[in-house]
Structure formats: C-alpha cells, structure tokens
C-alpha cells in the first residue's frame, strides 16, 4: 500500500518535505494525492543500437554523491536505490500553483528523504534538501501515460529529457534543456527514458489471474477456519442461578489436548446446542 502520511510524519525528513505533504493534503483530493504518493523505483530504457546502450538498458537508478546514476542490470551496487513519490514543492516565494516536486529516500538507517532537482548550470539530476534545491529546477515532475496502461516514464515540465552521460564514476543522469543541451561536450551521451516501476501495485493493476488466486486463497482460508471436526466432550460447571451442576457440550479440535481449567475455542459457522437445565 501507499506509504502513509502518518508513516511519513514519523520519518526525520529534510526541511520542507513534511510541509509539502501538509500542503498537498489541503489542496488535493484524496484520489489524486494517493496516486501521486505511490512509491516507485526507476529503471533505464535505452533503445539505441550500440554496445554502450545495451550496457545500461534495463539498469536501475541509484543515488550516490548527490547525483543520480545508472547501475547496469547485472551489476551489484551498494548505492541507495531510488525510491520516490510526488508531492508539491513548498515555497512561499513561488507563484501558485506550486510545482509538483519529487522526493526519494536517500538512506534506510536513518530513513530520510531528499528533493530531486535539475542543476540549472550543469543540467545534472541531483538530490538535496530544500536549501540546496530551491535555486534550481525542482519541477513540475510528472509521468507520461505509459504504453498499454503501464506506469509511464518520468517527465519534467510535461516532457521527457533524460540522457545518460558516461563519466569517471559511471553513467550519470542529466536532463536536456529546450535546445537539447545537457551541459557536456565530447563525452558519450545516450538518450534514455526513466521508466517507473511501482513498488505497491493497486488492486486494479494486478493481473486478473493474480486477483482470482488471492480471492481463492481467502475462500480456502475461510473454509479451513469453519470446517472443524467436533467430538462429544463434556465437563461440569455451575449454573449462575442455583449452583446446580449441568452438562454442557464442548466442541474441541480433534487431537487437541483438553484444558479443564480454562477451555478456550472459537468456532465459526457452527452452532452448539446446550441441553436445558432441569428445573
């Protein structure tokens, strides 16, 4: 399920993230807010016909040294994976409506969030707190429609512009400007798409056979809970009115040990009749 607002509030986030969540709760309807706050990871898609493209195609996005990098699909990495969601970027000096910001966890212990932004000078995609990010391009982030109802790719200002640039520390991610420039020259650059991979799919997003299987599992669990084999076992207890002993039928699971001092059994879907006490 979506990372809840109460859970978010318990995380020591960077300054401004909690404000963004609060602002979103005031201005957005619940369905829109829930859709934006669905957590996702990012994967690289590169359709170029080259060996370099095959190296990064299918790679996952990680955070390292205040920048975003692509880790090849079959490579191991100790860097923190991108795990993010959308919330409005809180800034009283910006005109309304506020841009839709993008945050990601940057560590698990302690769990913290940072804003994603594009450096206006270098075009590098970076992460940082509000002080570090507010002078740069902080949104509006979004996603495209996706193919065949898929999750869609990451967008900025309504369009995709991500590129992979090969550097000394690996394949870093930059975002091209309106003129197609990414702040680099004479370096390998590949056009990519950052595809969202949802971490908690909605019920309607699950394949039909998966939903049917879950329903069948639920029915099987209910049948197991109600299909209890009973044995005729009796024990003595006193009536509340007269103190006269009476025999009461007790239902016990077959093979279970009896505990006369504290008999406890929950029976669902089964009626146990007790003989009327003699007057």
Automatic annotation (TrEMBL):
Coiled coil: none annotated. Transmembrane segments: none annotated. Keywords: Signal. Residues 200-279 are annotated as: Disordered. Residues 200-221, 241-267 have a biased composition (Basic and acidic residues). Residues 1-20 form the signal peptide. Residues 223-236 have a biased composition (Polar residues). This is Uncharacterized protein. It comes from Letharia columbiana.
């Amino acid at each position: 399920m979506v990372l809840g607002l109460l859970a978010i509030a318990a995380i020591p986030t960077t300054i401004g993230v909690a404000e963004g969540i609060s602002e979103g709760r005031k201005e957005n309807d619940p369905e829109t807010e829930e859709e934006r706050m669905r957590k996702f990871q990012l994967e690289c898609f590169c359709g170029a016909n080259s060996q370099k493209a095959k190296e990064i195609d299918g790679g996952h996005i990680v955070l390292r040294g205040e920048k975003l990098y692509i880790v090849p699909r079959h490579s191991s990495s100790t860097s923190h994976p991108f795990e993010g969601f959308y919330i409005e970027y809180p800034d009283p000096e910006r005109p309304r409506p506020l841009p839709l910001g993008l945050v990601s966890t940057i560590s698990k212990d302690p769990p913290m969030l940072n804003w994603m932004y594009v450096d206006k000078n270098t075009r590098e995609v970076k992460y940082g707190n509000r002080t570090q990010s507010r002078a740069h391009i902080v949104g509006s982030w979004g996603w495209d429609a996706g193919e065949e109802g898929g999750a869609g790719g990451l967008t900025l200002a309504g369009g995709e512009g991500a590129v992979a640039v090969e550097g000394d520390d690996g394949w870093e991610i930059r975002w091209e400007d309106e003129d197609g420039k990414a702040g680099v020259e004479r370096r390998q650059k590949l056009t990519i798409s950052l595809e969202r991979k949802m971490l908690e799919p909605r019920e309607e997003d699950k394949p039909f056979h998966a939903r049917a299987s879950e329903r069948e599992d639920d029915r099987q669990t209910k049948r197991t809970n109600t299909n209890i084999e009973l044995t005729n076992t009796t024990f003595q207890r006193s009536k509340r009115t007269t103190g006269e002993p009476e025999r009461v039928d007790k239902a016990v699971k077959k093979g279970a040990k009896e505990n006369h001092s504290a008999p406890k059994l929950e029976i669902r879907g089964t009626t146990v009749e007790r003989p009327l006490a003699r007057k």
